[in-house]
Amino acid sequence: MPSFSLHVTDTLAAVQPSSWDALVGEQPLLSHAFLHALHETGCASPKTGWAPRYLLLRQGEALVGAMPLYLKAHSYGEYVFDWSWADAYRRHGQRYYPKLLAAIPFTPATGPRLLASTGQLRRRLLEGALALLAEERVSSLHILFPDAQDAAQCAAAGLLMRDSLQFHWQNPGYRDFADFLSTLNHDKRKKIRQERRRLTEAGISFRRPTGADIAAAEWAFFYRCYVNTYREHGSTPYLTLPFFERIGATMPGNVVLVIGSRNGTAVCAALDVFDHGTLWGRYWGATGHVPGLHFEACYYQAIEFCIERRISLFEGGAQGVHKLARGFLPVTTRSAHAIADPKFAHAIEAFVARERIDVAQTVDELERASPFRQGEANEAPLPGEAGGTAQDGAPREA
Predict the structure, then answer these.
(1) In Å, how far are 8, 32, 352 from 22, measured between CA atoms?
(2) Where in the sequence is the domain holding 8, given as residue range(s)?
(3) Looking at the structure, do residues 105 and 189 belong to the same domain, yes or no?
(4) Are 365 and 209 in contact (CB under 8 A)?
(5) Does 237 reside within a domain?
(6) Residue 53: Cβ within 10 Å count
């Protein structure tokens, strides 16, 4: 049998899309098209503090494993917050940056990070990443939002495991939006109906073009809304119009725009990414404030889309206790961390242990505040555990 070899590349142009996607499966946010678009349009690049260090595992000429790795010069766009760790390094006269990061840039979505078909190959990738940590002489390695399988692999290798919180909506097979509403308690059901009715009375209607049906002018309008959201929060947008246009062209079966209009004039837009089983709420914006517009564009329209397409899970992104009142339930997410300096590793281990207790208590409290009618909450099982949150100076996602 051909021997295994590990390589590091700074560009996905060196990897055949079909070989990469064979490792990824159907997860669009990890696809060659999505990640390469981030790099080629300059959104995730050395200039923006995201220097690719993709780890490739080959057996002979065949690609049998990969890991999306970046050498990071900051902690923006990650949604698992280590600012206090970086500050501790600074106060002790040491450098926290650069660091190694395994993640999807700007995307707090749970999924595989050790892209391989067997536990043995995933272990080789993780060992390669840890070896790169030593070779690059950086402070740390962070693996964000790994799925349960990869999280277990990281824990077995001795990485520090950290818990965070997200809110996910589940579709056990609702017939329509009214069927979903019928499972909520009276107050929550009444409030959602009022919000939707007021928008209808204000003359606002919605459409949801997908893929090739999204016109260039609609992408331009969405980008204008997206930039407005960041501007209102005093932040700089991470992504560019060429990036959005590119994924619209290369991933037509995985993107949907929600466009709200009044009297024929568009007033808001939200972008979601989806596959057959999951929808990921990403970005939104509006040209002006209309009460209830955000909830309709970002949540209710996406829920209707999931019901129509029989999509079982809607990950609403980072942050958002307000999502609870709209049928989203708390989910524990995971991240894994290797800290090179033993003294800092010990201190961070104690920190994440205390934090884990706080997250568990918060989840318990939120579950007791479930929006569902008593006896009907959690009839469908909660998704498995995963990895991250958000609040890194960027505006809230959809």
Answers:
(1) 19, 10, 35
(2) 4-165+330-368
(3) no
(4) no
(5) yes
(6) 21
Distance CA 391, CA 317 (A): 11
> Could you give the CA distance from residue 245 to residue 229 in angstroms, rounded to a whole number?
19
Together in a domain, 318 and 357: no
> For residue 383, what are its two tokens?
């998704």
Of 46, 306, 285, 287, the residue nearest 175 (C-alpha): 306
CA–CA distance, 287 with 229 (Å, rounded to integer):
9
What pLDDT does residue 381 have?
A: 34
Closest among 320, 331, 327, 337 to 385, alpha carbons compared: 331
Which of 327, 350, 378 is the last residue in one of the domains? Answer: 327
Rounding to the nearest 10 degrees, give the CA dihedral for residues 393, 273, 66, 41: -60
Q: What is the pLDDT of residues 323-367, one digit of tens each?
A: 999 999 999 999 999 999 999 999 999 999 999 999 999 999 999
Nearest to 223 by CA among 242, 205, 206, 208: 242
